[in-house]
Every structure is written in structure tokens, then in C-alpha cells.
Amino acid sequence: WPNPTTVPTAVFEEQMSLLGELGYTPVGLDAVLDHYLRGVPLRPGAVLLTFDDGYRDNLQNALPILRRHGYPAVLFVPIGYLDDERPLPHEESLRQLGVRNETVDWSELAELEAGGIRIESHGIGHRPLSELDPADAVREIALSKLKLEERLGREVDAFAVGRGSHADYRPEHASLVQQAGYQLAFTSVSGANSPATDPFRLRRYNVEPYPARTFELVLAGAC
After folding, report:
1. Residue 50: closest CA among 75, 87, 22
2. Are 53 and 86 in contact, with CB atoms under 8 Å apart?
3. Secondary structure, 3-state, the chain
């Protein structure tokens, strides 16, 4: 509190337990890549767990819970805030209230990956692409990929759009993401995905501190 996107650790633990109880199967990003690039079927009830912004609490609080359940996940990091004391743009008002939601630094990426949380790109400055001129949008998309690949020693395949609404991510941006060499792009538009979904406009459900029944309904697409 007062961060509206915070999920208390105990609630997150309950939600991760509910996934299995409700018949869902968390899968890694490789399974999603295989599905959209090579047509490999996903297991019934497959879900991909994703986190945005690179918060340190993902390392400290979420990772131990995920490891207990054996669940993989993806963390999309904006590289401009790794090793930086500045708050993310949407955190500035919270910082003025004395709330510090720190991000991980470059040296902690390997620890996250070793624990099963795969690092992918969330751009550089966490600015919506629609607010940038074309040259800055290209830099946001392409440079973040190159810098992460240098650090991680592997291909970075997925990009999560800053803010990620329909207004923030237009067709020309999807084209730029594809041209930069990404294989998938994730928006913040609510919904599930099917084999027919554009892999450069994948939807996601936002997860909040829902009670168990609401969490079940969100996963089922009823909310």
C-alpha cells in the first residue's frame, strides 16, 4: 500500500496453489515460442506467468514461491532502470510518499534466470511507444534487446510493450518489434490467446489481490 498493483505475498502463494488445483499448467516461454513459431500444441490449460518492470520483490518474494511450485516465469525489464536509483515513471508519486519499490540490478539477472525466471525486454525508459518519434521507438525496441543479449549471452525473444494498451501500441510498432528480431510481443490488453492470435499482439490478464473465486473467474475469461 498504496501501490495498487501490489499482490501480498500470502495472496500470491494462494494464487499459485490455485493454478494447479484448477487444472492450469504454467509453461515456460520456450513452449509459447514453439507454439507460435512451429505449431507445437500447448498443454491444455497452459498459462504463462509474466512480471513487468523488474522489481526487486520479484526476486525476493515471488521467486521462492515459484520455485516451491516448480513454476517458470518471465520478467520483462526496462534496462534504463537497472542499476539506477530513479523510480520508474509510474512510481514517482509513490516515491514522494516515501514508498520505494526498487528494481533489480544487472548483477541479479543471472540469479533470476537460475531460479527459473527468464529475463526478456521491456524497453529502456518505460515510455509508451506511441509517445516516441520513430527513431526513439526503434532505439527503445532494438537497443534494449542488444544490451540484454550482451549481458545474458543468448537471444532475447520477447518484448513487452510499455503500458501496452491499444493506444500505446500501433501496427507500425508491431512491425518495428518484428524487424528488431523479436519472436513475440506482449501487450497489456486483457484476454486469453489462441493459435490464431497475432504473436506480436499477445494479450495478458492483469492479476491483482483477488479472492480465490475472482481469480478463478479471471482465468476462465469471465472478468
Report:
1. 75
2. no
3. CCCCCCCCHHHHHHHHHHHHHCCCEECCHHHHHHHHHHCCCCCCCEECCEEECCEHHHHHHHHHHHHHHCCCEEEEECHHHCCCCCCCHHHHHHHHCCCCCCECCHHHHHHHHHCCEEEEECCCCCCCHHHCCHHHHHHHHHHHHHHHHHHHCCCCCEEECCCCCHHHCCHHHHHHHHHCCCCEEECCCCCCCCCCCCCCCECCCCCCCCCHHHHHHHHCCCC
Give dist(CA 79, CA 105) in Å, integer.
9
CB 49 within 8 A of CB 203: no
- How many whole angstroms separate alpha carbon 156 and alpha carbon 184? 10
| pLDDT tens readout for residues 207-219 | 999 999 999 999 9
Q: Say whether pLDDT at 133 is over 90.
A: yes
> Distance between CA 168 and CA 170 in Å, rounded?
7
Burial annotation 176-203 (CB, 10 A radius, 16+ → b, else e): bbbebebbbbbbbbeeebeeeeebbbbb
Quick: pLDDT tens for 76-86.
999 999 987 88
